[in-house]
Amino acid sequence: MKARRSIIRAFFEEGLRIIFKLYFILCHRIEVQGRENIPRDFDKLIIVSNHASLLDGIILWTYLDVDLKILVNRGRARELFLRPFMQNRYTVQIDTLNPYSLKGVIEEVNRGTALLIFPEGRITRTGNLMKIYDGAGFVAYKTGASILPLYLGNTYNTIFAKKHPGRKLFAPVTITIGALRPPMDLDHIQLHKRKKEASYVIYRMLCEMFYEAHYRPSTLSSEFVRLCRKRGGTVLYKDATGTQVNHRKALLGALILGRKLALYNETNVGILLPNLCATALVIFGLQAYRKVPVMLNYSSGEASLKHALDLADVRLVIASRAFIERIKINTAVFEGKTLVYLEDLREGIGFIDKLRGLFCSMFPGKLAKARPEESGQPAVILFTSGSEGIPKGVCLSHENIIANVWQALSRIDITAHDYLLNALPVFHSFGLTIGVFLPLLAGCRSFLYISPLHYRIVPEIAYEEGCTVLMGTNIFLNGYSRKAHPYDFYSMRYVFCGAEALSDTVFERYARVFGIRVMSGYGATECAPIICMNSALENRHGTVGKILPGIECKVEPVPGIDAKGGSVGRLYVKGRNVMVGYLKNEAANRKFHIEDGGWYDTGDIVDIDESGFVTIIGRLKRFSKISGEMVSLTAVEESLSGVFGPTKETAVMAVPDERKGEKLVLVTNAKDADLKKVRDALRQKGLSDLAHPREIIYMKEIPKLGTGKPDYVKLKELLKS
Questions:
Q1: Fewest CB atoms within 10 A around its CB: which of 136, 247, 248, 473?
Q2: E strands along 120-213, which residues?
Q3: 613 near 202, Cβ under 8 Å?
Q4: What whole-number distance in Å separates Cα of residue 131 and Cα of residue 133?
Q5: Does residue 194 have a pLDDT over 90?
Q6: What is the DSSP letter of 544?
Q7: CB of 418 within 8 A of CB of 445?
Q8: Rg of the chain's alpha carbons, rounded to an integer?
Q9: How far apart are CA 153 and CA 311, in angstroms?
Q10: Which segments of 126-193 does DSSP mark as H helices, in order?
Q11: pLDDT tens figures, 368-404
Q12: What is the rounded distance in angstroms from the CA atom of residue 376 to the CA atom of residue 578?
């Protein structure tokens, strides 16, 4: 009798799967990647997935071909409409208000049941990952089960998701199945923290699956053409001139500009323009015609600008006549180069150009296609800040930038409803990737503002435009907070700080005055640029967050610095986002590619705790050896931040000393600075006497780079003189 029932049940289940598959093929064209990762034999198995629609459980039951049960909320299972689907032999019910109900779930897994868990516990309201409940991680940890992570793509856009604009009856769906993960090993974590840490492990797995599901080899130009054709009339960029371009107009403008510039027989094309819609369109237009934009730093001085032009073999520069007059650059710097002004380029666009551009936007042909090898070819050339030496030319490929965008989006829920405000210059990697490329891939809008130094205007734009995401450095964010009205950031969801350490003063002011938690991140131009970041789901003030998915890291010990059991040392990273290499720098490229085996040496000393949060101790070049001990100049600067007032700046330098090898000197624009006040502040922060500056030098204006960070090279020269 039992055998007959099992045969009937098997036929019934197979019939259901056929019916469901027929529906999914016809309506959602489901594609499955990673079928080979589905285990055929297992002792204990937990399957974890994101949760975006009512279809999710049925889809996975249909396609995984595993005898699984689905963990469901008992309260939801009792709802009249859902009762037939949630009260049967294919589900395990849990009472979320009763912690003891987890015991039954654990017993079910221990009996050998393959259990499907949606760790978010509910259908997402954003389309991205939401918070992960501790229960999923706790069950996985206590049972010692293997974990199969996967990602359901685009179910959020089906009619079975939470109501939102853009849902479709025939939305395509993908299933990305990750590699089977071994049972959790949390023995190194303190006992009382293991439950919470287990949920973070699950979250990181789902972030990795999000990244793997979204990243695909392509080029920025082909993605630009594809997404602009798809999104049509939705706004992409806006700037301070009042110009606003939707995706359709952006595609048309980029193709017209790109073809005009393609007439010049140059591969590397310099761009000397502020943050404007036209700047973004020039970048995409050049890439569409297989040219490489070279982003020129106009704040670094004429000598650095000339160095960049020569290093990148730039013979064609796109600039604006009004902009060059405004920033007062001597055009003699461009001697021997072809200087094309944006104003003249616009005037030269005729009816035939527009007609040809319209035709290309409708029938892009090869402009929309990327050959496999193009993904790894240079997409843009940027230059390092040069804060500690001559700026290096950095080649970033299409793969580097696209991968880094999806790595970031795996951690932050930027959606089509968001509106980014970017005042960071696009010659800076952070400003370029987040301000120009991320909005395209994420489907949101971006306001490109010409200068981060306009402390009164930037908050006003945030208020007038209703922006939801703001990026800046600590110096710029501090300036905005001092000039902004408490209501200017009423619509702001996220404020991100990068390029330098986030000070306690800025963090507390934004929390107290504007009710916003500023989240810091860390990166490098060579990494396109984001390496790690805090997010709404994983945040710890004082750190720069956790390493992003798809990025490997290792910490190497440094002589003279306490390694603390291996958690402290020099940070090396590797991943798709790490650069192709440096321009004309054989020594650096040999070290990067050959000696270090493709691991990028950040040059930063970090401390990575047991949960994976990264704290920047300082750059190795910014350590001083005093009486045989290594002292971080960055740590001293951070400890003195805000001591003399929110508008006062400090920079700590090391100079030779006959007795102790080196001594520290404090450079500041605070006239009332005195050594006693400095010593008291540093002792309060727990720094040793070796870290105390022995001299204070008043400087009315500390030299700075375009990112707002101190220019230590110029500062060193000034101190010598």
A1: 248
A2: 146-153, 174-177
A3: no
A4: 6
A5: no
A6: -
A7: yes
A8: 28
A9: 43
A10: 134-143
A11: 888 888 999 999 999 987 655 678 899 999 999 999 9
A12: 11
pLDDT tens, position by position, 443-495: 999 999 999 999 999 999 999 999 999 999 888 999 999 999 999 999 999 99
Of the candidates 233, 290, 579, 262, the one whose C-alpha atom is nearest the C-alpha of residue 429 is: 579
Query: What are the structural domains, with CATH classification, of the chain?
Result: 2-214 (3.40.1130.10), 220-614 (3.40.50.12780), 627-720 (3.30.300.30)
Map tokens 């319209």 to a residue. 358
Handedness of CA 598, 603, 605, 608 (dihedral sign): negative
- What is the residue whose two structure tokens read 């974890």? 48
Cβ neighbours around 515 below 10 Å, total = 11
Please identify which of the residues 28, 51, 398, 428 carries the catalytic annotation.
Answer: 51
**51 part of the active site:** yes
AA identity, residue 517:
R
Residues contacting residue 245 through CB under 8 Å, at least 6 positions apart: 235, 236, 237, 238, 253, 277, 281
For the record, the structure tokens of 448 come out as 């490109």
CB-based contacts of 459, cutoff 8 Å, min separation 6: 480, 483, 484, 485, 488, 489
Q: Which two tokens stand for residue 429?
A: 């990697």
Write out the H or E segment, with its range, that includes residue 77: helix 74-77
Q: How many residues does the chain have?
A: 721
φ/ψ (deg, to 5) at 405:
-60, -45
Does residue 701 or residue 588 have the better pLDDT? Answer: 588
What are the two backbone dihedrals, phi and then psi, of residue 169, each rounded to the nearest 5 degrees?
-70, -35
The per-residue pLDDT for 301 is 77
DSSP 333: G
For CA atoms 554, 507, 500, 665, give the dihedral sign: negative
* CA distances from residue 253 to 110, 273, 277, 450, 605 in whole angstroms, order as listed: 61, 16, 10, 20, 45
In 195-240, at which residue ranges do the beta strands (DSSP E only) sit?
235-239
